[in-house]
Amino acid sequence: MAKKVRISFYFLICLSPLYGQQIKQGIVSDIDNNIYKTVVIGKYIWIAENLKTTRYNNGIGIQLVEGNDNWSVLNSGAYCWYDDDKDNSITYGALYNWYAVNTGNLCPNDWHVPSDLEWKYLEGYVDSLYKTDDQVWDISGLRGYDAGKRLKSKSGWRKGYLSTDDYGFSALPGGERLTSFNNTKGSSGFWCSSTEAGLSEAWYRCLIYSFEEISRDRHPKEMGFSVRCIMDK
Questions:
Q1: For every residue of 77-138, which 3-state class applies, written as one string?
Q2: Rounded to 5 degrees, what are φ and ψ at 70?
Q3: Structural contact between residues 122 and 41, judged by C-beta atoms closer than 8 angstroms
Q4: What is the predicted pLDDT for the residue at 5?
Q5: How distant, in Å, are the alpha carbons of 32, 100, 129, 162, 228 from that of 53?
Q6: What is residue 21's predicted lDDT score, i.e. its pLDDT?
Q7: For residue 148, what are the CA distances in angstroms to 162, 206, 213?
Q8: Which residues have a Cβ under 8 Å from the Cβ of 27 and sit 6 or more positions away?
Q9: Over the stretch 180-212, which tens digit does the pLDDT of each residue have?
Q10: Which of 12, 152, 178, 204 is most buried, judging by how many CB atoms fall within 10 Å of its CB?
Q11: Can you give the pLDDT at residue 161?
């Protein structure tokens, strides 16, 4: 039987000198007893850290796959640590393929991997120029004005580029994996959505250290990306 997930909320008032918004935070645990910060952004509650569970929320273990040859041919759920080094999980969490996302059991109970539409809402809510109903969020590639800058953690990215973390989302550059790890840890972060973009692809989001925008694009389902979770409505 899957262990019940406990969630509690506390209130933290954090006033940005530029925007003065209030940040409401809480915590949630997964089936492995990892504890995550959560944050309210608009009408949704998000986990404010990358997922690192090694089991689905029904108690079934997720396949740990190491070695580039094995990872790139998968058509079932799997996870790995960046560079096959578990120490990377402490800061960046795990990388999961879309097949793990598609089980519907990856996030804690009462949470799910956000859809493409839910990502669009987040982007429009935090961007200082384009709002949630703007058509700019429907295009592919880098878009928006400064949503990326405002979602990035203040630390953990390459120095010399502004990241303000105005909403407590604290996005970190955990890298990606396909046939190999692409030396992106520290410079780029990639996050799954639950929405397919065809038989072999799904939509994802990407933040890059040198850009203030946020990228939306399609990726092969075999790719390993970070995962954030959003609370069920």
A1: CEEECHHHCHHHHHHHCCEECHHHHCCCCCCCCCEECCCHHHHHHHHHHHCCCCCCCCHHHH
A2: -75, -45
A3: yes
A4: 42
A5: 6, 11, 36, 30, 12
A6: 60
A7: 10, 9, 5
A8: 7, 8, 9, 10, 35, 36, 37, 38
A9: 888 788 899 999 999 999 999 999 999 999 999
A10: 152
A11: 87
Yes or no: say if 171 and 161 are a contact pair by the CB < 8 Å rule: no
CB neighbours of 166 closer than 8 A, spacing ≥ 6?
A: 16, 18, 19, 21, 126, 150
Helices (H) and strands (E) in the chain, counts: 5, 13
CB 145 within 8 A of CB 130: yes
> d(Cα 165, Cα 184) in Å, to the nearest integer?
20
The structure's pTM equals: 0.90
* Coil, helix or strand at residue 100: helix
How far apart, in whole angstroms, are the C-alpha atoms of residue 222 and residue 54?
18
Q: Which two tokens stand for residue 14?
A: 């954090």
Tokens encoding 34: 């990892």
Q: Which residue ranges in the chain fall short of pLDDT 70?
A: 1-21
- Looking at residue 34, the DSSP 8-state letter turns out to be -
pLDDT score, position 14: 47
Check residue 186 and give its pLDDT.
Answer: 87
Q: Are 150 and 164 in contact (CB under 8 A)?
A: yes
- Report yes or no: 211 and 86 within 8 Å, Cβ to Cβ: no
- Is 186 in contact with 171 (CB distance < 8 Å)? no
d(CA 80, CA 215): 23
pLDDT in tens, 94-126: 999 999 999 999 999 999 999 999 999 999 999
- Tell me the β-bridge partners of 29: 35
> Tokens 């094995």 sit at which residue?
70
Assess contact for 81 and 89: CB atoms under 8 A: yes
